[in-house]
Amino acid sequence: MKRDDLMIAGSGLDEVRGKSRVPALLDMALSISGLLLALFMLGHLIFVSSILLGEQAMYMVTKLFEGYFLFGRAYPWLVAMVVFAVICLFFVHAALALRKFPASYRQFRVMRVHAAVLGHADTRLWLVQVYTGFAMFFLGSAHLFGMLVDPDEIGPYASADRVWGGAWAVDLLLLLAVAAHLGIGLYRLAVKWGWLEGRDAAVSRKWLKRAGLAITLVFLSLGLLSLAAYMKIGYEHRERAGERYRPATTQPAPDAPGPRIS
Ligand code: HEM
């Protein structure tokens, strides 16, 4: 028996004629979509945490994404287009990952027993990806749908009013799930494709695990601080909920009625 056949013996795959490359290609697509989402989420964290620099800073970031500094006026539908692209990527990633999820409660139990018997940290991490991925599918969909239908409801007061008005619960759970999924996902990507393996894979794996944990903790800390900042502004603004932020500038606000500045 050839080495490759020996490795898959027992799975039944060694008896299959004409082995397909499709599973490997789908796996690569899963990794690429995951990496793109991870990069997006790191950018998203910087954008959302601009609130820590003040309301004016978050307002400027919002107007930047609405194309104000390029076109001289704000177009929230530009944000909706980005949201749509992210939704597509999000669903592609979820659909590719679903192939690997247990398809029944029986399979789920077998998987848990296997993980317990193996006692292997990376297998446990894979289980965490299954749980957090499942949670993110629902929580992320709710968040993305809100951003898609109301792209003009983003801003220091609009966001703070929403968070204070109840969105904090979804945001908090989503933040916990994303922080874990992101750090573990990047670690698993590096291990899977042999990035930064160096001479001793066991040593580099230890460092990669620490790097993944550091990413999770930084993401979580900055995310929690931002969420707290939105809550504080939302609380202080509760009597005037719905009123939009007006920038401290001598120029008319980009979304103010009347003539536009060029
Ligand atoms: C282009 C797509 C997205 C846009 C425009 C967007 C925009 C925003 C904005 C403006 C906030 C501040 C709170 C609010 O206004 O409700 C926020 C918070 C948050 N978003 Fe997104 N988001 C997008 C995609 C995602 C995705 C894909 C995820 C994860 C699956 C995500 C996870 C979160 C979390 C966890 C928070 C709360 C974090 C915090 O406040 O520290 N977002 N997002």
Strand residue percentage: under 5%
> What Rg do the Cα atoms give?
23 Å
User: In total, how many domains does the architecture comprise?
Assistant: 1
What is the count of DSSP helices, taking H or I runs of 4+ residues? 9
> Structural class from helices and strands?
mainly alpha
Bound ligands, each once: protoporphyrin IX containing FE
SSE string, helices as H and strands as E: HHHHHHHHH
Total number of strands? 0
Report the biggest beta sheet as strand number plus sense, adding barrel if it closes.
none
What ranges have pLDDT less than 50 throughout 5 or more consecutive residues?
258-262
Report the CATH C-level class: Mainly Alpha
The shape is elongated
CATH topology: 3 helical TM bundles of succinate and fumarate reductases
On the 0-100 scale, what is the average pLDDT?
91
What is the annotated CATH architecture?
Up-down Bundle
Instruction: Classify the helix fraction into a percent range.
Output: over 70%
Question: What can you see in these coordinates?
Answer:
With 262 residues, this protein is an all-alpha fold. The chain has one domain (22-240): 3 helical TM bundles of succinate and fumarate reductases (Up-down Bundle). It has 9 helices and no strands. Helix 2 runs antiparallel to helix 8 (156-192) and helix 5 packs antiparallel against helix 7 (121-149). The longest helix is centred in the middle third of the chain and has 37 residues, at 156-192. It starts with a helix and ends in a 26-residue tail after the last helix.
